[in-house]
Amino acid sequence: MAVQKLPLAKALNESLRKALETDPKVVVMGLDVGKLGGVFRITDGLQKDFGEDRVVDTPLAESGIVGTAIGLALRGYRPVVEIQFDGFVFPAYDQIVTQLAKMRARSLGTVKMPVVIRIPYGGGIGAVEHHSESPESLFAHVAGLKVVTPANSSDAYWMLQQAIQSDDPVIFFEPKRRYWDKGELDTEAIPGELHKARVAREGTDLTLVAYGPMVKTCLEAAAAAAEEGKSVEVVDLRSISPLDFDTIQTSVEKTGRLVVVHEAPVFFGSGAEIAARITERCFYHLEAPVLRVGGYHAPYPPARLEEEYLPGLDRVLDAVDRSLAY
Fold this sequence. Notes:
- Its EC number is 1.2.4.-.
- Pfam families: Transket_pyr, Transketolase_C.
- Keywords: Oxidoreductase, Thiamine pyrophosphate.
- The protein has twelve helices and 14 strands.
- The model has no long low-confidence stretch (mean pLDDT 97).
- By secondary structure, the protein is of the alpha/beta class.
């Protein structure tokens, strides 16, 4: 049966299974990805079915894991690296930024770097320190990296397939608080473009732009606003770098208002680039300044305070009201 209803986590598992079946050069590697099946069970059962040479349990050494993946890519493999939690990626940041991102440019395009780095990111699961970060803008700022994030099961499956097939390195952010949300997946559908945004809900009064874990929150906000007679359009970015400004521009030219929502801190966040670019592109269409909703410019708090830190329904609706009040 092609169409199934699966949790986002299971869709990722199915996508990795499909990639391993299709291409013998695909290798999955990371801490506890084999026998344990990953902390979130994204790689569950894969080592049993494909062997320890294809699904590799690595030491706890993120820099070494990514460095090894670069070497494998140079030899023609397509490594898929799992970083166990978002905050653990930073020991590998040097390898990613100074080596992985620059190999193709350094070789004038002759060297391919088909490396996917999967990173569970964001909060909302009551985790301890270093387990709830949203570092996407740090990677989006680096030329040579593609940065994407799915918001539903269908995108999780298809976007991971496309990331693995890419000859450029892809940072694949997985919204861990949405791992258990179920959605429809058609494994025989023709996927859309990897870096194309989608309109998740049509509207006429205001545009909400979000990605990853905040898409669901924005859809809930749009539904709540509709009860008050406000028509809110929701755009799911899907890709953070490259960024589909054309889809956002088309929406804003229709609605005249834009609110950008993400879990990461607002200060120097991806929403700032979107706000600046759309202000340039849509200056004469805007009926209000572009507003941003996100985390605070502070270290991620202890779990019992994270609901105060994370942008929720009320903060999104407050921004909607402020924009419509202009």
